[in-house]
Amino acid sequence: MSTRIKEAKLNRCALFRVVLLLVSFVLLPGVSAADEKTTGCVIAHFTKTETMEVGDVPGHVLGVAQQAGLMFPSTGEI
Fold first, then answer.
1. Are residues 43 and 59 in the same domain?
2. Helix, strand, or coil here: 24?
3. Concatenated DSSP letters for 38-76?
4. What pLDDT, on a 0 to 100 scale, did the predictor assign at position 20?
5. Same domain assignment for residues 13 and 43
6. Tens digits of per-residue pLDDT, 60-76?
């Protein structure tokens, strides 16, 4: 395995860890500290999905999906 591929894997791993820490310690506490809790039902389906080769590393694929559906929020406890 070449040095460039190893460096790319290490950079991806480091980026993943930074994003995971950011979400865990910065964004999630604000969401869980909300005064209101929302419950309900979501009915959705994928209307379009696409995948494409990124090209930087063999096997690296990017996926994009579009969903359509309905959300039925309920008041009170279920």
1. yes
2. helix
3. -EEEEEEEEEEEEEEE-SSSTT-EEEEEEEEEEEEEESS
4. 73
5. no
6. 899 989 899 998 888 65
CA distance 53 to 55: 5
Give the predicted TM-score (pTM) of the model.
0.36
- Decide if 52 contacts 61 (C-beta within 8 A): yes
Positions of the chain with pLDDT lower than 70, given as ranges: 1-2, 5-10, 13, 21-36, 75-78
DSSP string computed for 27-38: IHHHHHT-S---
Number of domains in the chain: 2
pLDDT at position 78 is 44
Check residue 19 and report its DSSP letter.
H
Tokens of 41: 């039902």
Is residue 32 a contact partner of residue 23, using CB atoms and an 8 Å limit? Answer: no
Length of the chain equals: 78
